[in-house]
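Database export, one record per block. Field names are fixed; values are copied verbatim from the stored entry.
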Amino acid sequence: MSQAVTLRLDDDLARDVLALAHAVGGPAPIYPPHITLTLGHTAVPTQPLIERLAAIAATTDRLPVSISGLGVFPDGHGWLWLAPVTTAPLLALQKQVAEAIGPEHLDPLYRPGAWQPHVTVERGEIPIPDALGRLQTAWSGGLRGRAVTLEVVHFPPVEIVADLPLRA
């Protein structure tokens, strides 16, 4: 079982991201739009982790999120994603969450310094040129909103283990 800590987007920004995902034409997302802060291929003991993450969420303000571009992870067909502006507060939060989990539990691409913030819109079901063309046609420029909640998620199947709102 894998485990992720995600940063959920506000309803308006999530709706805009879902509209772009729909325009690309891939399968419907199985989990709402988010930025994955950490990913590990084994689950960390849940209750102690939730307590550490709750303390982080309680002292972290909701983060402004500006989506400014598009990206592709070119493995297989490729994953298509939206690029949030990488801000100091976003990097600091990702580092805090990664440290709360411990580097030994993280996929190397989700360790601080290697992590690429992204919001996935297509998971490699559609060839990159087709998916990217559709996304470019639907893209009307930057999106803005806020990241509002940390969630601990186990998968597969997707199970939200903890929902920890950031300070308003």
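Remark 1: The two ends are 32 Å apart (CA to CA).
Remark 2: Residues 11-24 form the longest helix (14 residues).
End of record.
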